[in-house]
Amino acid sequence: MKIKNDEYRLLTHPFEPLYDEDSNILILGSFPSVKSREQQFFYGHPQNRFWKVTAAVFKAEVPKTIEEKRTFILQHHIALWDVIYSCRIVGSSDASIRDAVPTDLRRIIDNSKVSRVFVNGKTAYDLYMKYQAKQIPFPAEVLPSTSPANAAWSLERLTEAWRGAIFPGDTGLKQRKHV
Fold first, then answer.
1. pLDDT digit string (tens) for 78-97?
2. From 71, 78, 156, 178, which residue has the greatest number of CB atoms within 10 Å?
3. Nearest to 150 by CA among 50, 58, 51
4. Parallel, antiparallel, or unpaired for β 25-29 and 78-82?
């Protein structure tokens, strides 16, 4: 189905990145979904498996409220942000993104301990490679998308892929306290 030009909306990212000076991994999405924009927080669609996957990776309870999610992210030394700051988009469709303006990742890199970057999904990774890879001093690793659109990946399979990337070679909980 062809998208008409009047279906595109020019949007600016509606909330700030989440990180602190102790964050040591950065997880990037593409651009917030309609539900995330409504909630003013990351991974707001109830069918997105991000919170279930990350909780399983860190052997923690799945955070429910925005405050619990914020606390979970910072306790595990994670930074969250998106690749795109503004774009024309139809609904939540990453495939429809055009006229993209990238976010400034330097502010996170310069003000934290981030030394590893993970990108949630291939589209986000492609956008990252196009717009931001040159400004970051270390490579990014693409992870399978937690989006409900990625139905080919079960929750268990996603969790194992994410765990293997975040904790390569980890067979126990020892390292999980300090990523």
1. 999 999 999 877 777 767 77
2. 78
3. 50
4. parallel
